[in-house]
Design a protein that fits this description.
The complex is a heterodimer of chains A (565) and B (332). Chain A is mainly α. Chain A is 75% helix and 1% strand.
């Protein structure tokens, strides 16, 4: 064979891969976002900034913006305090059963926050909430103990289910931190307080901040909790206002415009937060990562050991076990409001939902098939795109790197609005009201997860391996198939599950896109609750929890095994 | 092994995706504001009679459904074949916009029809919804006897009305109550800290749970919860709220014959028997309502009902909704 015939396919394959990667990101992610920006800034045939300002100054939108920021700030502060405290407790003290407790603190991640909100509505709604009623009935309280339908209620619920973002980051930082730094401070005569203030906190601060910013980003763009606890009582944030406007004003121009302007605000603030996070992390990283050979100094809790353990367990019991139990119990009631007695409780609702109720059967089926399809497609697309970004040296890569950043900073409601603009017939393809529009949106939404997992895996594959294969005469395609793919498989698996599981509980995107036969599990739970079928929505939420927790367990076994093997 | 697993996953994903959009023989999609307990049973009865028709429905508040239809019109394809809600003005509007199909059901002559002849063939009532005051009997020991009782102390801060921009029955009721008693009635409710809830189902659920002690409630939704053991009772003051729920076929429906069969089924004795057995008024005199519901006879109810001036109600819809919300939210 001549050298020519070897060279041609190489350029061919590389070119095709690059082209495909750019095409995927442009079609699925960039195009919808560009349409949003275009619709926001382009009014009456010209670039129009005055109009944007006018939309933002409308009392409703202005209030929603303020609410989003206010709720996000409260949630961030709360989660940071809770997350940092528990992280410190399980890494730096002699708390009993530390590793077990560390696992427990990650459980809130599994509970979708809108299901949590649903449970807290049952527990703390002003007059009927079980906790409020308990105090009113038995202790003669005149007023409810706590009204969950309030800003503080929403913040509290978000903190309960978001604090693991900070927890994980800070745990990681505290574990990786070089303990000799603290050691030397102690030898030099510094007290515990001084060490904490001068050494420990400055070292973990970047991680704390980066976790907090993640929560900020998430909370600003968060739909579920505010939708369940706020809308009814006139508390809107940006995503819920976009949803209400699009749903109630019949896709009119004004509604779409308000939606796109609000979406633009979300995109800009998300981009800013991510930029800030990158800055903070790059500053802090080199100080933290150091030798792992030392055991960090542990604070002796002495007499507080068991009280603190009980406090941790009580916290988990109160925020996880209690809401989950309430969901399952209410799901068993004949109708909402009945006391929990044996004759009122049965499995009938669960049976009805799983076998007889078409809406919920459809919803479960839709969520599972959408999740599988999105996960598979995104996994393959993600490995290809990350390969170009991480490994290939071709012209035009810069464009791709920029495009690759995009999925990280586009919140769900923005994607949903974007795909409505892009795929409802104005550009030749009409996917509106079909499952495909949800699939397209899921691919855009979860691309970031896949890119992250796959590029992490690819960065560990050293270039020399590929070069060696190529030097031995393998084609580009052969080296990909025999060297790269087998090595990044764990990354691909991780990407698959990182997408499949969250998509089972997805609400923000599908609530904007569903049609009669294309409800997802999240949409079905939400609309049942909205229709006043509280017991049905609780029963479906219970079933969803079972599916999610089983999935999570099976998968952590599977990935654990595959990572070793 | 792994790559085989991966390709299996891929294949499975694709297959599942494709299967979701698999086609059935004859299809029918109904957009309705009737809740699962009612439309689900009607679907079962209809599909039993016409096994070749695959019927699906979207059950949501009338406001949401109309928004959805409007959005679908924008995108060029209306998914609904049949629309059945309680928001009468919407049907007049849709007829004027020319998006309703004309179909004179052979059963039309057999039913009680409160609509005038100008709309005959475009839409027909399939149910006479009644609204009363649902009370939670754990909190309210003496049932109210008239609408004015709602200003009493025991209802303070705990009487709810569904949001009229979301719920068709709620809008019709507000319009009728204002017509009968004037805006002072709504102002008195505000002084007693009445609440605007969400959908018509949710206010009743909130009443059953005790978050509200009473609400303006739709008959069959309340009766469904009572039959499941909720401590509710439905009370009708002398001036009754009777709201017909019209059904219509969309003009460009690709499933015209299935749609016509469904309308016929709704108006038939069979369909109306299902409707009556759920605790709401049928449009046929020859279908009895089970005694447990303590509902008046359809003809009596019409006599007691506050008269509806449809043209007036359509004209004033936007203002009525706005003024109502402004008053209850304390803005005016």
């Amino acid at each position: 064979m001549s050298t020519q015939s070897k060279k041609k396919p190489f350029i061919g394959t590389a070119g095709i891969i690059l082209f495909l990667s750019i095409a995927i990101l442009v079609v699925f992610v960039a195009f919808p976002v560009i349409l949003i920006l275009f619709n926001a800034f382009w009014a009456k045939g010209e670039f129009n900034l005055v109009d944007v300002v006018n939309v933002l100054r409308e009392p409703d939108t202005y209030q929603a913006l303020l609410n989003s920021v206010f709720i996000a700030c409260g949630t961030t502060i709360g989660s940071t305090i809770v997350g940092t405290f528990f992280a410190w407790l399980v890494t730096r003290t002699d708390l009993p059963y530390k590793n077990f407790m560390k696992g427990l603190f990650l459980v809130p991640f599994m509970l979708p926050s809108f299901i949590g909100a649903l449970a807290w509505k049952m527990l703390l709604s002003p007059r009927a909430g079980y906790i409020n009623r308990f105090f009113m009935d038995y202790f003669g309280f005149e007023e409810p103990v706590f009204n969950i339908y309030s800003y503080y209620g929403i913040m509290a619920v978000e903190v309960m289910y978001l604090f693991p973002f900070v927890f994980i980051q800070v745990c990681g930082a505290l574990e990786r931190m070089d303990p000799t730094l603290e050691e030397s401070a102690r030898i030099s005569g510094a007290g515990l307080f001084t060490i904490t203030r001068r050494i420990t906190i400055p070292l973990v601060l970047p991680s704390i901040l980066s976790g907090s910013l993640l929560i900020m980003l998430y909370s600003m763009a968060h739909f579920g909790t505010v939708a369940v606890l706020g809308i009814e009582n006139g508390i809107f944030n940006i995503p819920t206002l976009i949803y209400e406007r699009i749903h109630q004003s019949a896709g009119s121009f004004a509604a779409i415009r308000t939606g796109t302007v609000l979406a633009t605000v979300l995109v800009v603030s998300a981009a800013f937060i991510i930029w800030l996070q990158g800055k903070i992390l790059s500053k802090g990283r080199y100080q933290i990562i150091a030798g792992k050979s030392f055991r960090p100094m542990e604070l002796k809790l002495r007499g507080l050991r068991y009280p603190l353990l009980i406090f941790c367990l009580a916290y988990i019991g109160f925020t996880i076990v209690l809401p989950t139990a309430v969901i399952f119990m209410v799901g068993g009631l004949k109708t909402y409001g009945l006391p929990f007695t044996m004759e009122n409780l049965s499995l009938d609702n669960y049976k009805f939902i799983l076998f007889d109720y078409k809406t919920t059967k459809d919803a479960i089926w839709n969520s599972v098939s959408l999740g599988l399809s999105a996960a598979v497609i995104t996994m393959f697309a993600g490995v290809m795109i990350s390969y170009v970004i991480v490994k290939m040296k071709v012209r035009g890569k810069g464009v791709l790197e920029f495009l690759g950043m995009l999925p990280f900073s586009v919140p769900g409601s923005v994607i949903a609005l974007g795909v409505i603009l892009a795929w409802s017939g104005k550009f030749g393809i009409n996917l509106y009201n079909s499952v495909w529009i949800i699939l397209v949106a899921y691919i855009a939404r979860y691309m970031a997860f896949s890119l992250k997992a796959n590029s992490a895996a690819l960065e560990q594959v050293h270039d020399s391996l590929i070069e060696a294969a190529r030097a031995c005469g393998a084609t580009m395609w052969q080296s990909l198939r025999d060297i790269v793919l087998p090595l990044v498989k764990p990354g691909m698996f991780a990407a698959f599950f990182l997408i499949f599981l969250p998509s089972l509980r997805e609400l923000t995107v599908s609530i904007m896109l569903y049609a009669p036969t294309t409800r997802t599990i999240g949409v079905a739970i939400y609309t049942l609750n909205e229709d006043g079928e509280t017991v049905m929505s609780a029963a479906l939420a219970g079933i969803a929890l079972v599916i999610i927790i089983t999935g999570q367990t099976v998968i952590s076994r599977l990935t654990g095994a595959s990572a070793k093997g | 092994m792994r790559s085989r697993f991966l390709s299996c996953l891929l294949a499975a994903g694709m297959l599942l995706g494709a299967a979701v959009s698999a086609d059935a023989a004859e299809k029918l999609i109904v957009y309705t504001s009737m809740k699962e307990s009612l439309i689900g049973k009607l679907r079962d009865g209809f599909v039993k009679k016409h096994p070749d028709i695959a019927m699906d429905y979207q059950s949501a508040g009338a406001g949401k459904l109309m928004a959805k239809i409007a959005a679908e019109r924008e995108s060029g394809k209306i998914l609904a074949d049949v629309v059945w809600t309680s928001e009468v003005p919407d049907f007049y509007n849709m007829k004027n916009e020319g998006i309703l199909a004309e179909y004179v059901s052979p059963l039309l002559s057999e039913i009680l029809n409160p609509f005038d002849d100008s709309v005959k063939g475009f839409f027909a009532p399939a149910r006479l919804g009644t609204l009363g005051i649902a009370i939670n009997t754990r909190f309210i020991k003496t049932p109210p006897t008239q609408w004015a009782d709602l200003s009493n102390k025991e209802y303070r801060g705990a009487f709810g009305i569904a949001n009229p921009s979301l719920s068709g029955t709620s809008y019709m009721s507000v319009a009728l109550l204002v017509k009968q008693f004037g805006w002072e009635f709504i102002e008195k409710l505000r002084d007693n800290k009445a609440k605007i809830g969400k959908g018509s189902g949710q206010v009743i659920d909130d009443t059953a749970s005790g978050d509200l002690v009473a609400s303006l409630a739709v008959d069959y939704i309340t009766n469904d919860k009572i039959s499941k053991g909720a401590t509710l009772s439905l009370v009708y003051p002398p001036e009754m709220l009777v709201v017909p729920s019209p059904v219509a076929i969309m003009k460009n429906s690709p499933n015209m014959s299935a749609a016509q069969k469904f309308v016929d089924f709704l108006l038939s004795r069979e369909g109306q028997t299902v409707i009556a057995s759920e605790g709401t008024l049928p449009v046929r005199g020859d279908v009895p309502v089970p005694d447990v519901f303590k509902l008046p006879k359809p003809a009596d109810a019409m006599k007691r009902a506050i008269k509806i001036d449809y043209l007036q109600i359509i004209k004033e819809k936007e203002n009525t909704v706005k003024k109502f919300s402004d008053i209850l939210q304390g803005k005016s």
